[in-house]
Amino acid sequence: MDLGLQGRVAVITAGATGIGRACAAAFLAEGCKVAICSRRNSAVEEALSFFAGHGYTEVFGLAADASEAADMRKLADAAVKRWGRLDIWLNNAATDVRKPMLECTVEEFDRCCAVNQRSLLVGSQAATAHMRLKKSGVILNTSSFSGKIPAVGNSLYSASKAAVDSYTAAWACELAPLGIRMVAFAPGPTHSPWNDANLAANGEAISRDIALGRPAQAEEIAAVAAFLASDKASFVTGVTVTVNGGRFSAQGIETARSWYQM
What we know:
The protein has 8 helices and 9 strands. The protein is an alpha/beta fold and 262 residues long. The strands form 2 sheets. Strands 3-2-1-4-5-6-9 form a 7-stranded parallel β-sheet, with helices on both faces. Helix 3 runs parallel beside helix 4 (106-134) and helix 4 runs parallel beside helix 5 (155-175).
């Protein structure tokens, strides 16, 4: 699809794998120039090789920690130095702690907050430093359906994603006078290296609660992100768009399937 993104510059944190890589590919397919980062340089190099194999050349990457302000300023500055502008920033870094609350450590709590919340602050600040100069830009935040209905056994992650939704609503209002939109999108269960083990173990049970009857592909999430970053979504800000295939949309999803023998 042509979203009018040709020539725009997008930066994606945690853009080497999973939803981040799918978003990078979607932006590249739309004609964007893309910068990605990952904490592991090997992941960055593998992703760049993947993009090159698909014919994309206007892309580079850095090893960087999305929760560190200096790293995010370096990433933003590198994109602007290379291409002269910054139009789209996607705060995509995340981690989780899959265990009961009574087994969670303070160190795990702090790390989850740093990766899932502090990264939003320092990433958005790094992006805004450039976007405000031209009074335009879009900051996207990857939230999660777990931020709306928390997951038992993954409470630290769920709470941190609820915080993402709250930051998005508040900061969108703060950034609007600067010409910057901020929007979040909340994927439901999605195939990715991070989540595939869980889906392999629990996918059938998870899919029963999804109206469309299956988890998402990362590319389906990325398509929504690309739309939200485009001028076609120019009046969308301060909200979290749920992209979950109708998970828990109503009681009795199995009943509807039985009507049509699905």
